[in-house]
Amino acid sequence: MAKSKKKQTPGKRRPKKATAGPPLDPLRTGMPALDSITGVEVFGKGKRVFQIIHTDEVDEYEKPRAKVRRKKT
Amino acid sequence: MPKSSKTITNPLTIDMTMAELPGATHRKGLPAKDSITSMTTSAAGGFTILHTNEVDGYEEAAQGPGFLAAAKAKLPKGDDFGGTARKAAKLSISAAKTENFKDVKALIASLVPDAKMIAHKPKIGTGPTSKRVKEEERNIHVTAFMYAASREADNDFHLIIGRDLSATPEMYMTMELSGLPAKTDASFAQLKTTRDAFKAFFKSIPGGKLPGLTYDFYHPPVPVQIDGSLFFDMTHATGQRPGPPSLKSRMPVIWEVHPITKIVLKKP
Question: Is the CB of A35 less than 8 angstroms away from the CB of B239?
Fold first, then answer.
């Protein structure tokens, strides 16, 4: 028997993901280093748009991860 | 070392001394506390050197605690340039007229955006024969402050140059005293004079010590006048960018002044 699909009521809809946010200001106080940013996620709508800046930064005492070895100048 | 200077290595004493240093509480441009390994205070020199374990992320020493000692042992002796990446550009001095900047912010604002340089046509090579491209044919003079410095594996001194402490936003740029080319090279004499002037400054100060592989930070920042040619660090256009981890987030470009062709440092 085919499963019946549940319809979301308008009031319970998840907020739509915003397609674009304001440009990142890398010099804003509290921003991570540019080369640590792995991705930016934008969510919210209207005036309440937030950006999550994903980085590869971890606390120094965490188990070290393998680093990419780059050729030195 | 003259008696007017003192080197502290005990972490508790470092903490206490930092707390008592005038103007050092929450000052811009200081390293993370846990990166400070020792400090040298120089009453006569007028500033304090904070020695850290910070290195550029692409250096061998950044790969883990065990790598630092090995990388230090490999540091070149003498003053010869030890690198290969864009060697022709790094060791040449542009013939362009000098442009004057009173602030690092204005200098940074005058640069072609990094993204455009990365997409440059023809592509900027990273091999030893890669010469200056048109956008790099500029000479500048800037009045600024030296916040930190290190000596890298290729024998270049990396100076982290920023704005007056009262200026906002905070921003820094790398400016490099190049390792020396062959004596027969056209730029040898000028680059040697410049490198010697940097060394002489530290020698003239009780407790003054040239930076090593790990970054030294200066408190207060050292007033400096720098002349040099502009250079785009294409080698580090992807992956780890240059700069000490504590300041890297406020280094908006990978442009450099490279080589520095004249430097005048003043006691703070």
Answer: yes
